Amino acid sequence: MSLLNEETAMEPHGVVEYLTEVEEAAEDVLTTKQQIIDLDMKRNRNREALNALKSGMCSEKVKICFGNMFIKFPKSQATQMIQKDQEQLDSELNHLRKGLKANVNHLNEKQGKPELSGYNLLPLSADEMKAIKSVLKR
Amino acid sequence: MATTTTPTTKVPEVRDITRIERIGAHSHIRGLGLDDALEPRQVSQGMVGQLASRRAAGVILEMIKDGHIAGRAVLIAGQPGTGKTAIAMGIAQSLGPDTPFTALAGSEIFSLEMSKTEALSQAFRKAIGVRIKEETEIIEGEVVEIQIDRPATGTGAKVGKLTLKTTEMETIYDLGNKMIDSLSKEKVQAGDVITIDKATGKISKLGRSFTRARDYDAMGAQTQFVQCPEGELQKRKEVVHTVSLHEIDVINSRTQGFLALFSGDTGEIKSEVREQINAKVCEWREEGKAEIIPGVLFIDEVHMLDMECFSFLNRALESDLSPVLIMATNRGITRIRGTNYQSPHGIPLDLLDRLLIIATSPYTEKETKQILKIRCEEEDVELSEEAHTVLTRIGMETSLRYAMQLISTAGLVCRKRKGTEVQVEDIKKVYSLFLDEARSSQYMKEYQESFLFNETQTAQMETS
Predict the structure, then answer these.
(1) Which residue in chain A is spatially nearest to B36 when comparing CA positions?
(2) CA–CA distance, A18 with A8 (Å, rounded to integer)
(3) Domains recognised in chain A with CATH numbers
(4) What's the rounded Cα separation, in Å, for the pair B371 and B389?
(5) Cα–Cα distance, B414 to B430 (Å, whole number)
(6) How far is CA B454 from CA A109, B444, B461, in A?
């Protein structure tokens, strides 16, 4: 274990502590990843629902399933509700992705790996990227 | 970039020389051969001996990696065949793929198409990388099903549904007319793994899913199989690119790029363009959108540069966007090109004053033997023990380069006689076939009269 500094390598207690820290950091990364997946699944289901509401059913009221209960709801209100939910999901996903980056950085740091290059850069805008793209193609 | 169509001016570029092709004689070098504490190992990563200079190069390398010494210059000086280019190569190899390294021979800048200083500026700007990030929202998944409903009349809007899945989830997308068109254009079918760019709607096929591999027994060789994507369907993809400043210069002088600049038709990049790019890149850096990676510009045979170039170098090193300049020369005290002044290494004293100088010394017999061994491995030539000793002696008495040349030629002779190992006889044969520098000069002296234009020799004698 070259990552360990000398004092911790000496005593087993220190090693266990160090490994726990790394495992914790790794666990954080995995949980955030899973959360993102779950939220995206929800987002996709909402999107399907919105599509279904837009086309098809012509009745004024629709049935919505909350947990294990169906509730009849006016169509416009239902759409609004889902849209609001979508927005919230989007912002939450953004938040999680930011958190994921911090978590990965934390894990790398704990493992003694160098920080990924360019990891903390802000992205270029679409226009700027378009200009750069012509360089990259060659 | 299709918005403007200005007549494009051609910008001649200093030809890019890939690291491996240019220095075939140094293809065995993988790094500087230092351990973690920067102590040089006797033989490592293709490097042999030159311990002091390798250690010095290692210190410089660490400083380059940390970005501490942008805008400094290093001179590697030593007799021919003492591993100057090898050390520069070693630095290049250890910098990793992300740090720009530009190699250039001193004589390359003398071209008719552009001025010397333009060639030098281009080389300087090639050695500075800009790291930027691209971020796109994509939908990535395996196509489970595509269902397209065409109207019975044959014309009118088509509607359809696309089912995509990852290992975690599956969802249905409603398709509009445009999307259906691009899907059929890409010939997307169930079992393909595709990505859809959210912003532009561009579809690209990554390959076919492994789970569908059994669907076809006969298929083209170009069919690529990929895993079904993992995780969420709508992903954020971040790609970090590294481009050199020179490349950004070129697009901006070719087209009315994102800085909307006028372009000249002199075939050279205007200094206004360069200044604007510098400003833009600095702006990006301040906004946290770009990182600047000062790379390495290596000028071999630097004594070939003239006074004009040296004064340009002096100035260019002071610019805030400047790479680390590594130069190599095999000259002692000699005339600076284009002047009558004598100076050490043929470099003016004011520039010499700014340089960190690394000296290389001739290889010992043992080191020569090691190098020859490494080269044999590199060139796939088996050498018997005696032949190796003979070759080492030749290397010591003539030059290392000459001995290295003999390896491949002796290898050929050996193969001709269907041998597996190069023997002393093979070496003897090629030694008699090819002259080394000393024997060649000797031959010249003896048979001068029978050559053409031998009077030039005497003419030169008179002037000097």
Answers:
(1) A2
(2) 8
(3) 12-113 (1.10.287.370)
(4) 12
(5) 10
(6) 71, 10, 12
Q: Tell me the domains of chain B and their CATH numbers.
A: 25-99+295-362 (3.40.50.300), 129-214+222-290 (2.40.50.360), 365-448 (1.10.8.60)
User: What is the rounded distance in angstroms from the CA atom of residue A94 to the CA atom of residue B28?
Assistant: 48
Examine the pLDDT at A92 and tell me if it is beyond 90: yes
Distance CA A6, CA A18 (A): 13
Q: Residue B454 above 70 pLDDT?
A: no
Query: What integer best gives the mean pLDDT of chain B?
Result: 79
Is the pLDDT confidence value at A2 over 90? no
Query: What is the percentage of chain B residues whose pLDDT exceeds 90?
Result: 3
Chain B residues near any Cβ of chain A (below 8 Å): 1, 98, 131-135, 168-169, 171-174, 199, 231-234, 236, 238, 240-241, 243, 247-248, 250-251, 255, 257-258, 284, 287-291
Taking an 8 Å cut-off on Cβ atoms, the answer to whether A43 and B234 are in contact is: yes
The string of pLDDT tens digits covering residues B165-201 is: 999 889 998 888 888 888 888 888 888 899 998 888 8
Whole-number pLDDT of residue A88: 94
| ipTM surpassing 0.95 | no
If we measure between CA atoms, which residue out of B95, B104, B113 comes closest to residue B29? B95
Task: Give backbone dihedrals phi and psi of B341, rounded to 5 degrees, phi first.
Answer: -85, 140
What are the backbone angles phi and psi of residue A57, rounded to the nearest 5°? Answer: -50, 130
More confident: B392 or B12: B392
